[in-house]
Design a protein that fits this description.
The protein is mainly beta. Helices cover about 5% and strands about 40% of the residues. It has a single domain, classed as Immunoglobulin-like, CATH 2.60.40.2840. It holds the Pfam family Kre9_KNH.
Length: about 140
């Protein structure tokens, strides 16, 4: 029983934690994305970064793409180039996984973010919407 009570008093050690991207960020095509993380001494020294999406509205059968293999934990950051998202479906549910080099263990996972064609996923409130806008035959915008 003494051993058990000693365990309760010891601090919990957390492994890798993704600190960026944050929940619900938007990642536009043509832009880089900074991934940052924190780690502890017991975490593996080298990891892989994998982009995943399990959101059925974006990828019904799931999606994963290796971003970079062999990233050192001490770097604590990686800038993902725009070419990584080229050809992806715009939509919600994308996450960055920090994965062991053998690919067997997810060590940490970012919150979900949305990949967007610039301007296509702008969040607006209902108060901002007044009336639908359409183009007339001359190509100018008119309110309906």
């Amino acid at each position: 029983m003494t051993v058990f009570s000693g365990l309760l008093k010891s601090p919990l050690v957390r492994g890798f934690t993704v600190t960026s991207p944050k929940d619900n960020e938007i990642w536009n095509f043509g832009r880089t994305k900074l991934v940052t993380w924190e780690s502890v001494n017991t975490d593996p020294p080298v990891i892989s970064l994998v982009l995943v999406n399990e959101n059925a509205s974006t990828y019904p059968s799931g999606f994963q793409k290796l971003i970079k293999r062999g990233v050192t934990k001490q770097s604590a950051r990686y800038v993902i180039p725009p070419a990584v998202i080229k050809g992806l479906k715009p939509g919600p549910g994308y996450q960055i996984n920090l994965v062991s080099l053998n690919g067997q263990s997810i060590l940490a996972q970012s919150p979900a973010m949305t990949v967007s064609i610039k301007g296509k996923h702008k969040k607006i409130s209902f108060a901002e919407v007044e009336a639908p806008v359409a183009a007339d035959h001359a190509g100018t915008k008119t309110q309906e």
